Amino acid sequence: MAMKHTMSVQKVATMLNRGSYMAVRDKGQTGKIREIKLFKPKDVKREAIFERKVDTPPLTFQYTSGSELLRRKDAHQCEYCQKEGGYFEIHHVKKLANIKQGTQTWQRLMIARKRKTLVLCVACHDKLHAGTLPDVRHVLM
User: Fold this and answer.
1) Residue 19, pLDDT score
2) pTM (two decimals)
3) What secondary structure does DSSP assign to 33-48, as a single string?
4) In a domain? residue 107
5) Is residue 126 a contact partner of residue 80, using CB atoms and an 8 Å limit?
6) Can you name the residues that pair with 19 across neighbouring β-strands?
């Protein structure tokens, strides 16, 4: 406070001193002068808390059973070639705006589903990163 009011610490202590306690005088909205008592942390009397539940809020939400991405991966089916069983990987793009042209089938599939992720089998995922992923219509025939 001394720095705020550009005065010495001793002057501020004298200004706040009310004898046995220290207080700040403040003019309220009504124009009435009120006195706000200052305290020291050691002056606060606290009771010991025994057998009380502290900071245990009531259960206000339901726990979810996972995410949609986990359900899609646990389905054990490639979302591109529909192959079942085996090991699956998640292909992820940073944002859908990066593939907004949708020139390839896998991009159009992601845009249509409005998802940044695609669950693929290992073979499809490797081909996608190599740039040799065939059109799904030719694969299914």
Assistant:
1) 85
2) 0.51
3) EEEEEE--GGG-----
4) yes
5) no
6) none
